[in-house]
Amino acid sequence: MRVHLFIPCLVEDFFPEIGEATATVLARAGCALTYPEGQTCCGQPLYKLGQPDAAKKLARRWLELFADATTVVAPSGSCVAMVRRYARFFDAEPALQRRARALAANTYELSEFLVNKLQITDCGAAMPGRVAYHDSCQIGRALGIVHEPRALLSQVRGLELVELPRPAACCGFGGAFSLEFPEIAAAILEDKIADIEAVAPDLVTCAEVSCLMHIRAGLEKKGSRIRALHLAQILAGTAE
Amino acid sequence: MQCNTQGFDAAATRACQDGHLREVLRKASTVFQAKRKAGFDTFPEAEAHCRRAREARARTLFRLPELLIELESKVTALGGRVHWATDAAEARAIIVGIADQANVRSVVKGKSMITEEIELNDALMTRGVEVWEADLGEFIIQLANEPPSHIIAPAIHKSRADVAQLFAEKLGETGVDIPELTLVARRFLRERFLAADMGVTGANMAVAATGSLLLLENEGNIRMATTCPKIHVAVMSLEKVVADLDDATAVLQVLPRSATGQKLSAYVSLLSGPRRAAEGDGANEFHLIILDNGRSRILADPLLREALLCVRCGACLNVCPVYRAIGGHSYGWVYPGPIGAILTPLLLPDERTDALFRACTTCGACAAVCPVGVDHPKLLLELRRRHAVTSGSGRASAAALAFAASRPGLFRAAAWVARTFDPDLKRLRRCPGMGRLARYAATRALPRLKTPFSRRWPVLAAALKKGCQNV
Amino acid sequence: MSDDSRTNILQRLEAGLGTLPYPGCLPAPDSIPSPLPDAASVAVQHGPADWRLLRTELTNLRAELDVATTRAELAEALKRLVRAYGIETAVCWEHGRLASIGIDVLLAAAGVKVLAATCVEESGGCRALRDVDLGVTAADAVFLDCGAIAVRSGIGRPRSISLVPRVHLAVVAEEDLQPGLHVLPELLRAWGEEEGGLPSAIHLISGPSGTADIELVYVQGVHGPLALHVLALSGDWAGAEGHKR
């Protein structure tokens, strides 16, 4: 199966290793990968800030970049959720709207792609240790992806999956929110970190890049020994 | 309640750094979420019940003017009086007028957000009328002269020792443990109920087909306030009317479950007009105040009128991560949490309220629990969109970002510059105008800029190809 | 002026509804209302099983249930109640069921002074019951899905009887049982038809009064009764037949 890699902006400059892990996992699963160059941003932050016109420009660009794609996969739920909104922007351009709908229907978050499209849960990975999974809001609630990451993690050799006390509670990042209201974001994060420490895992993971960044930063600031990795990194068996 | 939404940033920052308040809010959130979950997990066909409740509320909105006319007609036929109030000032004037006319010297109240909204208590008190909040939590904060910290449990920030001291000071009578303190309040307020000339409540619902008022509670203070005094004044947010007994029951079946996990509140009162002739108790004068105060404007808004479906269960507050961190007081007005972040800007269009709808992580927990299907994130994003248009704020930087993101070369160049000269963004955060980045950085470690994925891809692609060939 | 406000408010609402589009997922104005879901309802069996179910619900609501199949059991239950709550004074609804079981006599036999329901009317309201220990009512309906007891106000049945005294005793019978809240509208409509309209007050009572406003610690009994006790007349209850009113 040919898969076009959708690399979120945060991954491009701050977490390229997550992109590498994603590509590795997909390749091992038998996908032929295409990486459209020139990817910048899906427009989500602009949309959430109430700037849909600006977001629309980026939507149009994204649709052009991925025009040849039959299947698109991203290591992020929020970006996929944004792509699934694109069609709304183009009421006045029916042809583009059709393309947007078609592409959106074939754009997937990594875990949903592996489990639901490729029907695989075993990525051949091994990572011994206690791992807690955080249900990112943009993965669990926005896209309804709840059991897929857990199914994948349960097949990782040596991995003991533990549930967090409030697994679906928001980590507090919320995109622009954490820049506009950093103290509130930190307070929300504090409770998430406390939940993580309460189950004493070796590692906490999630399928959303921004949550990972936020949670890892909170753990590091506390001097915690608990590591934070993206789901893709565990499935690729890579740990940076 | 005085509006202080412009103080949101400062209030919220203070609140989320107040250890005691955080502890109290965590506890409330945990308890209420658990209760609600227990109530819904054991609710057969919960979805169907919620859909039916939503239908009832939607029917209300579609037929609102006609239902209010029918309600007025039925209440009047039962011997009640209906008053229409355009705004808070008019509602206050009407109620003060009723009190004046009947020489009312003391009032007992059921817990009512709408009476907070219209700032009723002060209006009565300046006329020399004694006003007693009779819901225990409201009573405590009234004595303490403090604002509520939580909508369902307004005095939750007060320990038993705090309450004991408060009662000793203000009532001249106190207790040690919580049951004792509750009995002290019961004894004190019983005398107030029995002596009061007027009882004031809100309205959970009003049934147009029968002219009946529906009131829910656990304490009994609403029953006392509507049974003992001679006059009952009910202030109703105009969208609270429902078409008939079926629609009322549909909402009744979900409201207590969504609020506290109870199948029903301890007391549900269905009141149809004043007492009948030869009845021994109940008010003999019933007044219903139908209040607009901005709701008609919301109804006229096709994209935001959905907010009027709200039945005030409080479930959205209890799951909101922001509310859990900052509490109700930070929202600066009567309605906190996700629904407050929508209603307040709509009801107070002339105040600075944008912080309320900007302070949302769009996590969606609120929409997931709303029994009538209000899609809070959708409404909040629409408020943000409108604010961006009217204030023009962020437009320039959004356009700039869109410009840059449309030109990958530019994007890459900017990232290269940052990565080369300031990978930890240390210098950037000290730049003027980058204050927010600095505040952000103060709270956590910033990520580092690395060799971008696009630069790594060629090597990676080759390695993967090789890997596949070897497999 | 209220009249101008009325006109203005209604005009604004009418005008406001004129703006389309309306959220598509909401029902159109003239669609037929859906029936109320009844998934939570419980089949009334007209036997001891009903009381077992009711006991489960009432226990969850922190209310007590006694089931009496004979006069002797009824008298015993009342004596226990009087002792347990230290009842010295009581007031009862004027009601066929209560009269036919001779509640006044039974309470007097247990050493309780019984006041007439008319004392409320005569002394101008609730105050008459301020120091009364026990208020006794029948029930107009008992909902098996949630344990709620419906009481209608009326002449000889003041609201304060189930509100002001320390303890509320509701004497219920099989004919009161309803499968669930979903029948509430039809029940209310039937009552309305019987009486030419709804009574001034109907209360659905689910347990004693309570609050957790201090430290979220639940306390039973605050402004309403401190305890709710239900006495069920079970089986072929000779002498308790008769009108509900």
Helical amount of chain B: 55-70%
Tell me roughly what share of residues is in helical segments of chain A.
40-55%
Fraction in beta strands of chain A:
5-15%
Distance between the termini of chain A: 28 Å
Catalogue the unreliable spans of chain B: none
Q: What integer is the average pLDDT of chain B?
A: 92
The gyration radius over C-alpha positions of chain A equals 17 Å
Please indicate the count of domains of chain A: 2
This entry's quaternary arrangement is heterotrimer
What's the helix-strand series of chain A?
EHHEHHEHHHEHEHHEHHEHEH
Mean pLDDT of chain A: 95
Which word captures the global form of chain A? globular
The count of DSSP E runs of length 2 or more, i.e. the number of strands of chain A, is 8
The Cα radius of gyration of chain B reads 26 Å
Please provide a written account of the structure.
By secondary structure, chain A is α/β, with parallel strands linked by helices. Helix content of chain A is 50%, strand content 15%. Chain A folds into two domains: 2-115, no CATH class; 122-235, 3-Layer(aba) Sandwich (Rossmann fold). In chain A, helix 12 crosses helix 13. Chain A is globular and about 50 Å long. With 471 residues, chain B is an alpha/beta fold. In chain B, 55% of the residues lie in helices and 10% in strands. In chain B, a hairpin with a 4-residue loop joins strand 5 and strand 6 (212-217). The longest helix of chain B has 23 residues, at 19-41. In chain C, a hairpin with a 5-residue loop joins strand 5 (141-143) and strand 6 (149-152). Chain C has helices at 2-17, 48-60, 71-85, 96-100, 103-109, 118-122, 184-195, and strands at residues 64-68, 89-92, 113-115, 134-137, 141-143, 149-152, 167-173, 177-178, 201-205, 210-211, 219-220, 227-233. In chain C, 30% of the residues lie in helices and 20% in strands. Chain C has a single domain, classed as NagB/RpiA/CoA transferase-like (Rossmann fold, 3-Layer(aba) Sandwich). Chains in contact: A-B, B-C. Strand 9 of chain B pairs antiparallel with strand 9 (201-205) of chain C, so a sheet runs across the interface.
